[in-house]
Amino acid sequence: MTTSVSGLPKGLPTAIRAAIREIPDYPRPGISFKDITPLLGDGALYGAACELMAAPFRGHGITHVLSVESRGFLFGGPVAVALGAGLVPVRKPGKLPFQTTREEYALEYGTDALEVHVDALGAASRVLVADDVLATGGTAAAATRLVQRLGGEVVGSTFLIELAFLGGRARLPEQRVESAVVYTG
Ligand code: AMP
Predict the structure, then answer these.
(1) Are 8 and 55 in contact, with CB atoms under 8 Å apart?
(2) Confidence class for position 5, pLDDT limits 50, 70, 90
(3) What is residue 9's DSSP assignment?
(4) Mean pLDDT for the chain overall
């Protein structure tokens, strides 16, 4: 494969997409679930995918990568290491041991909530949100509000997969949004 300006192979997004298995009608009829386990099982491709997610944010002074449990951690950790940044875990209610602040967000049916430690970020924090999938954008928007509540700045967000037909990008204004592979339908 030839390489791009970032030094990563130009065919990388195609190889990543080929390693994502689509499971029709899971977990509910009408949902095409993106199963990333074949990608995770290929060490070279997993590492390259994390590099691809980190690359647009090199040189942007990212101090912290914030990721949401549980699949988000699979990418947040490696992206943080690649950027030399700290990792901030965001978890479902009651999972973090220290004092937390909470953000609620709408699901298709009902609401859910995310929590972060109150001392995880501050005014000098330049944050990148990392997750496996950008779908409706509700999770990433809630993560963005958590960062802002703690006084930090969301520089951008990076995803392995973007389901562009769900329009999640529109819910993340005033930040740079990058995704390694995009599904348009
Ligand atoms: P959303 O808040 O709608 O952007 O959804 C984002 C989260 O939902 C991601 O962290 C994914 O883990 C999960 N998700 C949503 N849709 C899918 C899908 N089709 N395949 C796999 N995971 C999904």
Answers:
(1) yes
(2) low
(3) B
(4) 96
Residue pair 136/112 in contact (Cβ under 8 Å)? The answer is no
Domains of the chain: 60-183 (3.40.50.2020)
Q: Is the pLDDT of residue 108 over 90?
A: no
> From ligand 1's centre to the CA of 148, what distance in Å?
22
Residue 22 has pLDDT above 90, yes or no: yes
Give me the residue label for tokens 């204004």: 173
Measured from the Cα of 139, ligand 1's closest atom is: 2
Q: What is the pLDDT of residues 37-60, one digit of tens each?
A: 999 999 999 999 999 999 999 999
User: Ligand 1: which of 107, 133, 145 to mutate, most ligand atoms within 8 Å of CB?
Assistant: 133
Q: Which atom of ligand 1 is closest in space to residue 131's alpha carbon?
A: 10
Which of 8, 20, 2 is closest to 182 using CA atoms? Answer: 20
Ligand 1 centroid, distance to 85 Cα (angstroms): 25
164 token code pair: 């562009």
Are β-strands 126-134 and 153-163 bridged in parallel, bridged antiparallel, or unpaired?
parallel
Distance 55 CA to ligand 1 centre (A): 22
In the chain, the amino acid numbered 27 is: P
pLDDT score for 132: 98
